[in-house]
Design goal:
- By secondary structure, the chain is α+β, with helices and mostly antiparallel strands.
- 23% of the residues lie in helices and 32% in strands.
- It is built from one helix and five strands.
- It has a five-stranded antiparallel sheet, with no helix packed on it.
- The mean pLDDT is 96.
Length: 74
C-alpha cells in the first residue's frame, strides 16, 4: 500500500473510495486518524477525526472494524 501527503503535510492512504489520513493531533490533542470517502462528483466528504491515544486503542479499533465487517459477511 502506497502513501501520499496532503497539503497540510499529513500522510494518507487510499483504499478504493476511502482516504485514511494520519493526524498528529486530533480535536482532543491526541494523535489519530481521519476517515473520509470521496463524493461521486469528486472531492472528499469531511469525514470523522478519530483520536487514538495509544496502541491498545488502535488495536481495539482494528478489531472492532474486523468484527463489524464480519457481521456483514465480509
Amino acid at each position: 500500500m502506497e502513501s501520499d501527503t496532503d497539503r497540510k503535510g499529513n500522510t494518507y492512504f487510499e483504499v478504493n473510495n476511502l482516504r485514511i489520513t494520519s493526524i498528529p493531533e486530533t480535536w482532543n490533542d491526541d494523535p489519530g486518524i481521519r476517515i473520509q470517502a470521496y463524493k461521486p462528483e469528486g472531492g472528499l466528504h469531511r469525514g470523522a477525526e478519530i483520536p487514538i491515544p495509544d496502541k491498545e486503542t488502535g488495536y481495539d479499533l482494528l478489531n472492532a472494524i474486523h468484527n463489524a465487517l464480519g457481521e456483514n459477511g465480509l
